Amino acid sequence: MGNTTQRVTRRPDGKWQHKQDGNQRATKVTDTQQEAIKSAVDMAKRLGGEVIIQGEDGKIRSRDSYGKDTNPPQGDPFRYDVTVSFAGEDRPTVDRLVRLLRRHGVRVFYDAWEQADLWGKDLYQHLDEIYRSEARYCLIFVSEHYVKKAWTKHELRSAQARAFKENSEYILPIRLDEAELPGLPPTIAYLDARKIPLAEICQMFVSKLGLKREIESVAECSWSSRGGA
What we know:
By secondary structure, the protein is α/β, with parallel strands linked by helices. Helices cover 38% and strands 22% of the residues. It has two domains: 63 residues, no CATH class; 144 residues, Rossmann fold, CATH 3.40.50. It has six helices and ten strands. The C terminus is likely disordered.
């Protein structure tokens, strides 16, 4: 089946619906818009395609594309290209950036998109695995809120363990205000989201990701040519 379009709209009776374009009947009718959006996103993730969300006035509020295959390419050791660590107060900024990244084909671990998978898991253990070993990079959104949260400290510790083990630029910090992040060396280069547009930060990450993949590919080919020994 080719890519599809899942559409969320307000019904004349005041309820919300998720309907796949081309179908006569709604896939799901809900009391809230959020429930309809979740239904549409879940189906888009399964089938591949686009989710279009229309407001009460019928105007398109947002549109996002979802790839059908969420597994890493064959031979890729990482499930995600990047994971994001942030405080809940900073979610609006993070949400805008991760949506930009996804539109460029970047595989992002973002909790709002992983609710079904996270349901019932021991989050302390599971998130440690995510931030320690399942992504190529980790974006840290540094703010006064971030430095005060217990969960962000847990995520940061896991990311730091990975960075220390590999001695590589795994952690990519993005500054949202003047807060200093304890435990992160002051010599690490930041990007300042107050000065650099999110679209530009997205482009910089995509470029960095492409270079990293190229280096890894060359290293793998070199290893293979030596017979893996």
